[in-house]
Amino acid sequence: MAKVKSKRRYDSSGRQAQARRNREAILDAAERQFLEGGYAATTIAAVAREAGVSVETVYKGFGGKPGLVRALYDRGLVGRGPVPAYQRADAVRDQEPDPAAIMREWSVITTEVTSAVVPILLLIRAAAAADADMAALLTATDEARLVRMRVHARFLAERGHLRQGISLEQAADVLWTCSSVELYDLLVLKRGWPLPRYAAFLADFMIAALLPRDPAPGPGP
Q: Deepest in the core among 7, 52, 126, 202, taking most CB within 10 A?
């Protein structure tokens, strides 16, 4: 009776791990070249050469320079912690009952994320004046951030945390401003504020702008 050969199960984990390593190598190379040479001067061929992959691999994975910049921005949004920043922000929002504590935690996460994405956002902003793809990406990132801030603002409104007279859109605008590259650029990059000071400023600003004010102390005895 002929022996039947058992089929070996194909293990794709090695190929997937290599694909992840290639992706990170491409992004690391692209980030260095974009930030050192600028958007227009960076070429896919140079990125591929530094990353040790083919030009076809870069195009297949990212579709070109706009896709590389978008992927770098998305990588920065994850933040620097083991848990993605947006998950940490949502967990604080859902689990913390004190709105002032929520905003202090949000300010720390916002500072972490902004510090990670600001080099790419400044690259996008500089390139947007002459490149339609970068102008579209700049608009898209601003709009996506505003959508995210509206979700947070709606939560604050539904929990009754907002001060009377503050609309959902006003709250979203405040949160959107606090997470902007422009504010970070002014205070951290241009004025040299350390990150803890910047995070404390964001928290104080959001609390003062959005939450009910403490009642004034009454007259003494």
A: 202
